[in-house]
Amino acid sequence: MSGADSRVDSSSTLTRLLLFLERVSANPGIIKAVYSIAVLFFLSIVITPAVAGIIAQMLSLSSLELNGVVLTRMERAVSWSFIIGLVVSTLDVLAGIPLAWVIVRKRGRWTTILDSLADIPFVVPTVALGFSILEFWSSPLGIAQLFGYSLVTPGSALIMLLHFAFSFPVIVRVMVGEFLNYRETYEVAARTLGASTFTAVRTVTFPILRPGILAAFLLALARSLSETGATIVVAGAFENGTVFISNARSAGLTSAVVVASLILIVTSLVVFALIKIIAPRIRITPLRVWPKFERKLGRPPVVAARDAASITIFLVFVLFPCLFIALPAILAVASGTGTEAIAGTGPWGAFWSSMLLSYTIAVVATVLNIISGLPMAILIARNRYGTRITRIVDVLVDLPIIVPSLALGVSLNFFWRNMGSLPEFWVIVLAHMTITYSYFVRAMTASIQEVQPELEDAAKTLGARPLRVFRRITLPLTKYALLSGAILVFTRSVDETGATSAVSKTLKTAPILLVSWIKGTVPVTPAERALGVGFLVVTSFLALVVLRLVAIRQPSRKVT
Amino acid sequence: MALLSFVNVTKRFGKILALDRLSIEVNDGDYLCILGPTGSGKTTLLKLMAGLLNPDEGTIYFDGKPVNEVNIQNRNAVYVPQRYALFPHLTVLENVAFGPLARGKPDSVALETASKTLDLVRLSSRAQALPNELSGGMQQRVALARGLASGARLLLLDEPLSAIDARLRLDLRHKIRDIVKESGLTAIHVTHDQDEAMSVGDEIMILRHGRIQDLGPPRRVYRKPAGISVANLFGGASFFEGIVENTVGETALISARGLIIQAPSRTLTLTSPVILGLRKERVRISRDEPDLDNVFRGEIRSVRYLGNSKEYLIRLSNGDSIASRQFADNKVGFKVRDQVSVSFRENDVMVFEYPVLGLSRELEVT
Amino acid sequence: MPKLELVELSKNFGNIQALKDVSLQVDDKEYVCILGPSGCGKSTLIRCVAGIEQPSSGEILIDGRSVEKTLIEDRQIGYVFQDIALFPHLTVQDNLAYGLTVRRTPSDQMRTVTNEMLDLINMRDRSKSYPKELSGGAQQKVAVGRAIATGAHLFLLDEPLGALDAIVRAELRYELRKLASDLGLTVIHVTHDQEEALSIADRIVIMKNGRIVEVGKPSEIYHYPRTLFTANFVGEANLLEGKIVRVDGERCTVDIAGHEFSASIVGKKVGRRAIVFVRPEFVHLTTPTEYGWKGKVKQVTFLGSLNRYVVETDDGIDIIVEVSTAEYSTGFGVDESVSLSLDDANMMTYDYPEEGVEKAISLE
Fold first, then answer.
1. Where in chain A is the domain with CATH 1.10.3720.10?
2. Pairwise CB contact (< 8 Å): A465 & B73
3. Reduced to 3 states, what is the DSSP secondary structure of residue B282?
4. Which residues of chain C lie closer than 8 angstroms to B365, CB-CB?
5. How many Cβ pairs closer than 8 A exist between chain A and C?
6. A183·C87 Cβ contact <8 A
7. Domains of chain B, first to last
8. Greatest pairwise CA separation for chain A in angstroms
9. Which chains neighbour C (Cβ–Cβ under 8 Å, 3 or more pairs)?
10. Do A190 and C87 touch (CB under 8 A)?
11. What structural domains does chain C harbor?
């Protein structure tokens, strides 16, 4: 590694440029400027359009043309969004925690495979997921083969199955992280005091991990409220909040769109605030224990049954439905649709240009997010400008995640349209940036916080100027988070349907195109449908492979 | 001109007053030990010296220049944190070369300086190892080498030995001091271990609740501590509450709940309350009654074996307890419940003002 | 019947042998300190006794019964962790009561025992505080109280004072000891601090590299160590190379750089090459005499109650000397000439170690 250093440093122009930049970075004025620009950028590009747009749109409405029928439909749709969200998130937490437990506590060959498999629904674009689930549960090709009739028809039940599946990996990821960071000594201490394993976990481990569990729950809830494309695919005639808004847009009911978006945004913020504030304050004591019963629950046969159940639930309700898309896709290739696809004839011309558009947008959004997000992450992680500012920024950064993306898109659409003639491409990029900004900043913040501040302190006093401290110390130690944060942003951008559908007029990203293919607004054959979704899945799958390779190459270099 | 000086420096963290109007001067070549319990402000003080924190009030001068004209990188004051903060992703050699490289030296020069410094701490054989492959003692030496190689003039060591086994500490603490002195550096060595402070410091500073309680060479601070908490933190002692009953020339007679103790008088006013302190090794115990200024009968309440010495706790007739440390006592010695004579010289009695907050608060070590 | 018995206990972690055939007996109400450098296996040993680790071979018997198949929660052992491990989400009171809560103890009994514990550790006024509001020493006391509340009689302490300031450690260790005797507990206290072990143990077990090197009472271990490792580990020691001149039963005459001394013999006398051990406090310094062993003071360290000298003899040997400051002698200064005399009654000779002195006393 010292060789690599020498190569970089002995290239004279590069060295001189770096030294110059380093000296510049030592100027406190410049540093403040960088952070200020990052914060201003965040406020003006991410926060303001989202908030101002919806308010402005409300104010601009000359009259609220909402008849009674539409109003009832809207109320019902929005309530259903929350009901589904809360139910699904609870089920996800209940099912995901045991799986995360198995992965962390039973390290072995099989559990590492399980770990990777649990990520798959994460990386499969939700449109593809929606389609796959639709086929699996309700088409003649899927589970219907076993039972003779389609088990679940499009509607609320199918939406729940869909949301359960795509929020599941989020829960597992967060909980695996929590379990890995957890000091098992607490559990061991509880056991030395006479608590059986089950009691120790119930009375000590879970209460201590409560903040993490809550965070996972809220993340799942946010995804459920937000999801648009796939939900439309599986909703059939049913309407939840996002489906309603989408339908209202197509029907030209602007006031309904605006009002529903506003209600959705406000209610989300309130629900999240309530949960975030109330849940941590719920007192768990006094402790009640049933020693004999709980001891039985910790016995090997019970534990084995529980593990088997959680793995089965994962396979039946998450993994197989996700992977099911492979079947129709392969059939499509076999039937010759593949050659047409590659030739670009028929609908495929539009398909490939959408793919190109999606990936271009994703790259641009990712790069911009990294550049603007890094200073923010450092600001929050290192408490640069005092706890008050950090806390404010911390809360604000989370806003775009909490707010359902379709509602956000409506707001953004209005804001940017009225801000002048910004090309559609850039409006979409900005919309994607707004939605993915938090993912990157969160990932980087957590990772920077794990780098002991003492390392940076020592480096500074050894003579390293801020840029060098960042380049040589902070960055190498957070490389993994940077890459996985970038991949997260990238895949989320490729995935994005809600906000994109709100802001795009003529341009169609891949998922939007596929929704129109699946719903039939653009007539295509079932084979073409399956193959199009299949292509999207394959490209996203490659992203997962890259992520895994990066993870493997990162050895744990932490000094105790 | 002092290398580093603080003038009335105050630092707060929210409502907590970490340092209270601190003034110090550190001269070139000094080896200053700062002794204080956890929470006394030691780490805050080091970070202020390093420039990692800024004072809320007061001024810091580096080489006579006020510190806002000299930024961290140019101070040449290297901060070595408690757990060494070796860069985990760099080899030992790369760690040590970090400083010179950061200051813009060409690679060849930096690597050569690093190799030479590694020789000095006798770790050349581990130059390509990663920090997590080394033992605690070795990591300590790499941290030192890294500071030396950077061309620092001032080394700020934050509890450098607290992560090391007790037995190894005895060997290492002299080595650290030797390396610093050989390289002609100035060092500030923070610790909570009084033996460590005593054995390596040219000067000792006692820090408590963010204030300097005493500052001076070890022998002086030990023999004439500036206050009760200093005597307690640095050396330990037995303390008695008493009232001045009479002064006869250079001797004062203090009444401690009935016992009359002869102590050196130093402008003590009659009937004023005082606290008396006695170092454990200055208290003799014997079966007979020796001819000394202060002799009292008492009963042995406990015997503590410390290897090279034994510590006896004796209950005197007035209910107070006094400790006596007998050195190199290999014979059976005294047992619990033995009746003995406790004696000490008048000049060995330390006299302190009665503390405003009371004796027990003064003796608190948290 | 011993309270605890270990029979040829071994534990491997992959290729690393953490414990090698360790056998030990601990009697009821004994306070045993296991002393050794980092990595010697002392923590692994008590983790096996507690059931946190499973031994690779060997037996563990508590009150005469093998505990191999007993789960941690059923061994009824009090355990205090190095990093304290108080439950952060519970108050001091609830932490103390935890062991009783998980046994479904009736609430009035719980209240009585909890209050007893609060009084025992003197923390009645902090019963509703959370661990993070307490100092390190206070936290550790709560951890100890928590273990005592379960009624266990066998206690395992894993470097319980390691995380505390030196001055707090020096006080707390006596409190711990007193608690153990008042309550009649059997304690195994693991530490790397020799002063800690010497001051409170009934017996000390010295460990190195997974094996027990020596077992004995503090004064035996300190004054009559059976190995060079123990001699050097338990306190500062002068280890001087010498030649045996004459053997006389249990004592011998040994020649160090031309000066003859009498010393007791440890172990078998195989060759004439020997190492002579004498503690720094048993070397005496005087102003130079005509026929003494002469040298010059190389280094002086003031340690409050004593002065530590490194004297370089005229033959080039470095000797560490400790002299109490209780007497009024002003002590010697650097470069001053002195004469040394060694206290015969406190000198021992050992076989010259095959692997060399440095390896024999090495802490790794």
1. 63-323, 325-560
2. yes
3. helix
4. 165, 167-168, 171
5. 77
6. no
7. 4-232 (3.40.50.300), 237-363 (2.40.50.100)
8. 74
9. A, B
10. yes
11. 4-228 (3.40.50.300), 238-361 (2.40.50.140)
End-to-end Cα spacing for chain A: 22
Which of A222, A348, A208 minimizes the C-alpha distance to A280? A208
State the average pLDDT over residues A238-243.
Answer: 88
Whole-model pTM: value is: 0.89
Specify burial of residue A268 (Cβ count, 10 A radius: 0-12, 13-18, 19+). buried
**Neighbours of A (≥3 Cβ pairs closer than 8 A)?**
B, C
Query: Which residues in A lie closer than 8 A to residue B93 (C-beta atoms)?
Result: 2
Tell me the pLDDT tens digit for each residue of A24-62: 888 888 888 988 899 898 888 888 887 777 777 777 766
So what's the pLDDT on residue C270? 65
Interface contact flag, B85 A457, Cβ < 8 Å: yes
CATH topology of domain A63-323: MetI-like fold (1.10.3720)
CB–CB contact A188 C94 (8 Å): no
Residue C59: predicted pLDDT? 94
Distance CA B276, CA B199 (A): 26
For chain B, list residues with pLDDT below 70.
1, 68-70, 329-332, 366
pLDDT in tens, B129-170: 999 999 888 999 999 999 999 988 899 999 999 888 899 898
β strands within chain C, DSSP E: 4-13, 16-26, 31-35, 57-62, 65-66, 77-80, 154-158, 186-191, 203-208, 211-216, 238-248, 251-256, 259-265, 273-278, 283-286, 293-302, 306-313, 318-324, 337-342, 347-351
Interatomic CA distance for residues C159 and C136, integer angstroms: 13
Cβ distance of B308 and C137 shorter than 8 Å: no
For an interface test with C, give the residue of A186, A191, A193, A299 to mutate (most C CBs within 10 A): A193
Taking CA–CA distances from B39, the nearest residue in chain C reads C135
Q: Among C49, C80, C89, C105, which would you mutate to test the A interface (most chain A Cβ atoms within 10 Å of its Cβ)? A: C89
Q: How far is A560 from chain B (nearest CA, A)?
A: 7
- ipTM of the complex as predicted: 0.90
Structure confidence at residue C13 (pLDDT): 93
Specify the CATH class of A325-560 in words: mainly alpha
Q: Enter the DSSP assignment of C293.
A: E
Give chain A positions within 8 Å (CB) of C79.
189, 192
Q: What is the pLDDT of residues A506-560, one digit of tens each?
A: 888 999 898 888 888 888 888 888 888 888 888 888 876 776 676 665 544 333 2
Which pLDDT score is estimated for C328? 58
The rounded distance, in Å, linking the Cα atoms of C24 and C46 is 12
Q: Which residues of chain C have pLDDT under 50?
A: none
> Cβ contact (<8 Å) for A457 and B47?
yes
Q: Do C104 and A289 touch (CB under 8 A)?
A: yes
Are A188 and C72 a contacting pair at CB < 8 A?
Answer: yes
Residue C261 in contact with partner chain A when CB distance is under 8 A: no
Mean pLDDT of A162-177: 89
What mean pLDDT is reported for chain A? Answer: 84
Q: Which residues of B touch C138 (CB under 8 A)?
A: 366
With a CB cutoff of 8 Å and minimum separation 6, the contacts of B361 are B355
